[in-house]
C-alpha cells in the first residue's frame, strides 16, 4: 500500500514539475494569448499552420495554439523567428496532425519546428 502511494506521489510530482518547466522563463511565466484551431470553423483558424502564421515574428511571450479534436491533414512548420509557442491538442487519441509526403525525409516531415522554446503536447503527429 505504501509503495503504491509513493509511486502515485512520485508520478504526481514529476507531472507537476514537467508542466512547470515547460514554460521557459525566456518567454515569461504565463500564456498571454490563446488561439483556437477548429476544422469546423468554431475557432480562430481552421488549420494549425494558419494559426502559427498569425503569430508575429520575434515573439517572446508564450502563445498557446489550442487544437480542437480532429485529424488535421497538413504540413506544419514553425519558422525560426516564431518562438514561445505552445501547440496543445485535446488528447493524443483525438487530435492528430498527418501529412502524406513520400519524398526525402528532409523535405517530408509532417511537423517541423526551427526555433527554441516550442512546446507540443496532447497531440499525435503521423507521417503517412
Automatic annotation (TrEMBL):
Pathway: Glycan metabolism; pectin degradation; 2-dehydro-3-deoxy-D-gluconate from pectin: step 1/5. Residues 35-126 form the Pectinesterase catalytic domain. Residues 1-22 form the signal peptide. GO terms for biological process: cell wall modification; pectin catabolic process. Keywords: Aspartyl esterase, Hydrolase, Signal. GO terms for molecular function: pectinesterase activity. InterPro entries: Pectin_lyas_fold, Pectin_lyase_fold/virulence, Pectinesterase_cat. Its EC number is 3.1.1.11. It is an enzyme of class 3 (hydrolase). Belongs to the pectinesterase family. This is pectinesterase.
